[in-house]
Amino acid sequence: MKKIMIGALILLLVVMAGAGCQSQAPPETGSGEQSEKLEKQHIGITAGRPGDMWYVLSHALATFINERSDWLTAEVVATAGVTDNTRLLMGEQELRSNHLNVTMHPGATVWGEGEYMPLQIGMLGMLNETWVTLDPNIKTIKDFENKTVVLPRDAPYSYAWLFRNWIEQAGVNNVKLMHGGISARLTALRDGAAQVGVLPFDFYFPDEYALSASLMELGARGTLYFPNQGDISANLEQAANASRLDPFVDGKEQPPMSMVAPAGALDATQTEDMVYIGTPVFWSAGGEVPEDVVYEVTRILYEAAQNGDFAPYHSMGKGITPEFLTMSFWQSEEERKQYYHPGALRFYEEAGLELKAFTQ
């Protein structure tokens, strides 16, 4: 009987202790931020044409968000191209607060006369392009004089101005310009309608280079020559000035987007180091997107980059590393922080990650 009474007493004490725990107030949540995060939210990612590298890699990011967040979901939105990503958001104001944006113009203040500013979340890739010709007599950019030169599309807010500026910086004034997409440029160079032009090549951060499909196809027509190789000091200065003088940003200077590929990076005929322009393509969001949303996206993006999760989706995905995410062309720390979204910046600062410039 004594044992039964002791057991009953122990049971009573356990029940009372449990009731006491249940009656305690929940822990303070401060600003209520945690409860807000638990509210389900959905975002879109404007990502260009289906099949484009940035569309595929944005689909990967949306997949990771859907799998790895308890409260945030995402979907990819197709557009007519990277420039049209921003056009869509400018035309539909209500989309700016719940859409990420794949863009490629750092510091692009012209949208809506400064009304909309895409702020960086993390690097996605690079659009690296080089001058190329089949004519061995075109040895430098000065040899473009009296030649037909084919450049990227001459659309509003496209990046063809980079290469027009470079030609002018080299002191070449008498050229005939053609414009077109990659396929049109390849056709013009292959068929002789243009003697020299701009084509992309592949670059995997930090130091892996390869001929693109378009350069390999042009190489089947004849030997490739790169007139922007050598004379590094002059070419760097010209390319840097070309990217600073951007009409797209309403008189404000862009950062210099000039880089150097080591000799032999692309082809046996590239016997010297070569200056080229690398246009950054990055995930961004306007200040209208809540900081907590961008913080969550950045957290998932960073973890995916750490794990190498982008590589299975696209070959260029292997270049998305934690270090690559935080790169930009802005030279000062103040500028770098200014052009990152506060949510992304908060994550990187808490993670102890440094924002770096490509040319540092």
Secondary structure: elements and pairs:
Layout: H1 2-23, H2 33-37, E1 41-46, H3 53-68, E2 72-77, H4 82-91, E3 99-103, E4 119-133, E5 148-151, H5 160-169, E6 176-179, H6 182-191, E7 196-204, E8 208-210, H7 213-219, H8 232-244, E9 258-261, E10 274-285, H9 291-307, H10 322-325, E11 327-328, H11 333-338, H12 342-350, E12 356-357
How would you sum up this structure, described in words?
The protein is of the alpha/beta class. The protein has twelve helices and twelve strands. The chain has helices spanning 2-23, 33-37, 53-68, 82-91, 160-169, 182-191, 213-219, 232-244, 291-307, 322-325, 333-338, 342-350; strands at residues 41-46, 72-77, 99-103, 119-133, 148-151, 176-179, 196-204, 208-210, 258-261, 274-285, 327-328, 356-357. Strands 1, 2, 3, 4, 5, 6, 7, 8, 9 and 10 form a ten-stranded mixed beta sheet that branches. Helix 3 links the parallel strand 1 and strand 2 (72-77). Helix 3 crosses helix 9, helix 6 (182-191) packs parallel to helix 7 (213-219) and helix 9 crosses helix 12 (342-350). The protein is elongated.
